[in-house]
Amino acid sequence: MHADDGRHLVSTAGSAHTTPSGDAAAGATVETVAIRPRRTRLTGLAAGARWGLAGFACLWMALCTAVGPLYWVEGSIADWSWANTAYFLISFAAYLGIVILLVRWARRRRILPPLPVATKRRLVHLALTAPMQAMARAGDWCRRMILHGTDRWWKLFLILLIGWLWVPTTLLSAFGADVRSQAREFSWALNQWLGVDQPYIGFFSFVPMDIYPTAHYLWPEDPTYLTDQHNIVLTVCYGAATAVSRYLTGSNDAGFVALSAIQFVFAAFCCAATANRFFNLPFLRPADGGERIDALHETGLARPAGALQRFVILLFFLVCPLAVFATISLTKSPLFAFSFVWWFGVWYELHMTRGELMPDGKARRLNTRSWMAFAAASCVMLISAKYAWYIIVLQILLALIADRRRWHVYVTALLLPTVLIHGGVVLMIQSGLIINGDPIESRGIQLQQIARVAKLNPEGIPDSAAELLEPIFNLDQMADAYRQDDADPVKSSGIQSKKVSYKWRTVTEEDMAQFNTAWAQIVAANPVIALDALLAKCYGYFDVTASPYTSMDYYVDSIYVQNQTEWIKDWCHDWRASVAQFARDWGAVPVLGWLTHGNLYVSLTLLIGAAEVVLRRWRTLAWHIPLALLMGVMITAPANNFERHMLPVAFCFGFLCLTFWRESLASRHTADGMPPNSPNPDTVEA
Question: Which residues cross the membrane (predicted)?
């Protein structure tokens, strides 16, 4: 509570004992003097903690930026120089400066110095000239056209569908090794169901479970050829489509094209539905199309997006290679990203219709269409990414704490799909119908740390740790397979030039129980090398100057598309290569190329989150928690700066900016419209 408000309350309480001599008043004054420093100290400590958290985020990003040049040449943090110190200080100042500017702007404090009076007069005179007036009229026409052309979801859907139409018609489909493995996996299972004998023969033969690989101790007694490595529902859908394609056309190609076309339409729908929610706030309009039934428009919180904001966000989706190539890329991350955007939009509707913002103080009921969208988006997220259930469960807990009155929405649209889909998969694994994904997939950081030590300082591995690891890994092969940007070779993923560092054929569950102990011993004996392995595997996600390890254009002209297809490779073959190369060339341009990289949007999202912490927008932060969790997924992912992992954050970034702008307008309105004795929202502790 504000100090002035506290002083007023104390004086009022003491007025009952006031005497003509003023003794009671004097006592009240002493009491006020005693309380004000205490409250000031608490407020200062809370503000310091918030700025400390924001500063920590800036420090982490500055560290990632500073170590980038070291790892570009496969160096070490031990090679830190004055140049790296300069990179660190400059980037930290830049990141912290952005947070400060965001906070100052949100609190209606001056950012730029005022223009001189003479300059203002010249600008006014220029605005009154005929050419400028003509430009203003043209700009006003463009503004009206943009607003009118984007005021309904179906208009936004058509804009995206038409704007992206060249992608599926000329590029047809885009994919890497994963969808081919899923098709192969389903094919083997289908043959097994049909009674075709496909025994597991010999040490040097590979079934799908050996390519990932999946440890044999995870196999049931009667092995199946279906796994949850790439999400069983998605594997069955992709595999069934390619199986039908082979039956009808003799190859997988038609199936790939059909799957990409379906994802393309789904992507346009998800982005249009979410853009409509953020641009036009349709959930605040009454069903009869009349005026808004709440007073939020007076504060700026419910102000529809302007023409420029709409244009910039749509331009990103229509032009940025991240979004364009993701529409037809058959890998789990784009599908998760587009469903996440859809899910994110419904969360915004829930956020904007909560009780505190409604005139009657009651949360608005989520309409049936939005409830169905919420549940459907949750289902697609759950079938496309295994980590989705962690995100959804945490959001359920936060929602039940912050919005208890609408608990039935969260139970039916979030909890029920999670129980049915994730619980169903768990039951299928336990019953032996499918094989679980190998938990080694989640140990990327640990694997990289062990492998880097094995490569750079094998003598530094304690004998006890080597003994514990012997049944699990071949340390010599780990050292040979180590690549600082990617943990897949270390865990023997893939079939080309396979390094058998992970002994998946013979390792047991008891052996794996000793893994963490061995890893801790190695890290304790080699802390610098372990730190290098950690940073080298994840710094690129938070370093805007780092080029992606694998960008989205990889899927457009991969060898799996260009060389290993039946007829897709002959459809616009050179055009496909030219489009991918154009995206790479654009991404290589200093500064302007950053717009095509996911780490720019990840970094800016983190800075906006830091500003929200300082501004104490706790309910907004609770809604944005999934974006932070996705950053954790990036850090633990097998590869560094893998752009498909950044797609959800990049797709939501424009909507995040729009939300920050609206809430800043609302806080300014609140500050301007307060009664004289009301506490300042910039100093009141939540």
Answer: 51-73, 85-103, 153-177, 231-248, 254-275, 311-328, 334-350, 371-401, 407-429, 621-639, 645-661
C-alpha distances in Å from residue 205, one per residue of 38, 184, 474: 73, 15, 20
State in Å, rounded, how far the first CA of the chain is from the last one.
Answer: 8
Q: Can you tell me which residue has the tokens 């600082």?
A: 484
CA distance 429 to 425: 6
Write phi, then psi, for 501 (nearest 5 degrees). -85, -35
Residue partners of 236: CB distance under 8 A and separation at least 6: 186, 226
580-618 exposure pattern, b = at least 16 Cβ within 10 A, e = fewer? beebbebbeeeeebbbbbbbbbbbbbbbbbbbbbbbbbe
Q: SS3 sequence, 309-360?
A: HHHHHHHHHHHCHHHHHHCCECCHHHHHHHHHHHHHHHHHHHHHCCHHHCCC
Residue matched to tokens 């075709």: 196
257: nearest Cα among 526, 512, 566: 566
Q: Please state, in angstroms and rounded to a whole number, the distance separating the CA atoms of residues 38 and 26.
A: 19
User: Residues 342, 663: contact at Cβ < 8 Å?
Assistant: no
Element at 440 (helix H, strand E): none
CA–chain centroid gap for 7, Å, is: 46
pTM: 0.88
- Measured distance CA(468)–CA(475) in Å, rounded: 11
Nearest to 190 by CA among 208, 214, 210: 208
Cα-based distances in Å from 388 to 112, 126, 379, 436, 630: 42, 55, 10, 16, 9
3-state secondary structure of 553: helix
For residues 626, 628, 629, 635, the Cα torsion angle rounded to the nearest 10 degrees is: 150
Q: Within a 13 Å sphere around the CA of 403, how many CA atoms are in the beta-carbon half?
A: 30
Contact call for residues 58 and 92 (beta carbons, < 8 A): yes
Written as six digits, the tokens of 621 are 């932060």
CA distances from 198 to 190, 434, 494 (A): 11, 17, 21
- 157: Cβ contacts below 8 Å, ≥ 6 apart: 268, 269, 272, 273
SS3 20: coil
Give the model confidence (pLDDT) of 48-102 as tens digits.
899 999 999 999 999 999 999 999 999 999 999 999 999 999 999 999 999 999 9
Between CA 189 and CA 178 the distance in angstroms is 17
* The token pair that represents 498 in the structure block: 């396979």
Under a CB-based contact definition with an 8 Å cutoff, are residues 659 and 620 in contact? yes
> Is the model's pLDDT at 30 over the cut of 60?
no
> pLDDT tens-digit profile of 208-229?
788 888 898 998 888 788 888 8
DSSP label at residue 483: B
Please count the CA atoms within 13 angstroms of the CA of 111 that sit on its side-chain side: 12
Q: Which amino acid is at 24?
A: A
- Determine if residue 527 is left, alpha or beta; phi over 0 gives left, psi from -120 to 50 gives alpha, anything else beta: alpha
How far is Cα 69 from Cα 7, in angstroms, rounded to an integer?
A: 55
